[in-house]
Amino acid sequence: MKIEISHVTRYIYEEPVTDSVNEIRLTPRTNYRQSCFHHEVRVEPGTSLFTYEDYFGNRVHSFSVHQPHRELVIHVRATVTTMDRHQGDALPTLPFGEQAALLQGEALQNRYIEYLLPTGYTEESAELAAYAAGYPFGEDGMYPWAMRLTGAIHGEFTYDPEATSVHTTALETLKLKRGVCQDYAHLMIAICRSRGLPARYVSGYHFVGDLTGGSADFEQASHAWVEVHIPGTGWLGFDPTNNAEVDGRYVKLGHGRDYRDIVPVKGVYRGTGRQKLEVKVDVRRLD
């Protein structure tokens, strides 16, 4: 599938501000499942961009705007081709006993330690441990277990944009029984890590329009989901918000331990704290 993305972030300040220093993580990855063959970033007021990869391999653009300005606009456009995971040969799998042995082995734990340790969003707690205990691994393996957990979170929690904020933790989401994609992802990550299964937070886009072409006819936004490392198989994507395994409808931007590692746009500036933020996202399928 060929997907075109337009992402516009606009900050409007009540008074002129200066010395704005920013980082953006809005470049689609190129990997085994997707290929980004066009990407452009334009900033108003005009400025130079510095590009590098962070610790997790995410592409970062940084820039500064020092002159006084009342508005900062970041335009990002990208074209990405994606493929469904099930195209081609079947994924390698191992019996549950071998998966469990790998999971408990020092080699796997050392390699993926940052995706096993709790973070501020996925802190350990008795409540989370009790919830996770309701979803033990089964003899059918860890991939079916991850699919069951994805469906359980989708079914037991209510999507509610008014219930949480960008600072909501997995424990708070568990207590509220509601939230948005960021909250669903943090909760699933916390449960996976409590079971000793490496899991990471993914940011990106989800095409939800008509597959025959065109774009969705409602307001769109960026999306978040989870990647789980299945021993003997590798990293696979799961979306508890939509009760789905990641396929050709998804475009990945980056991953990290939690939301804090891959905030799409963040920065500081000198001036008034009174500002307005507008974000417009369009994800459409190209012929």
Automatic annotation (TrEMBL):
This is Transglutaminase domain-containing protein. It comes from Paenibacillus mucilaginosus 3016. The lineage of its organism: Bacteria, Bacillati, Bacillota, Bacilli, Bacillales. Residues 173-242 form the Transglutaminase-like domain. InterPro entries: Bac_transglu_N (IPR013589), Papain-like_cys_pep_sf (IPR038765), Transglutaminase-like (IPR002931).
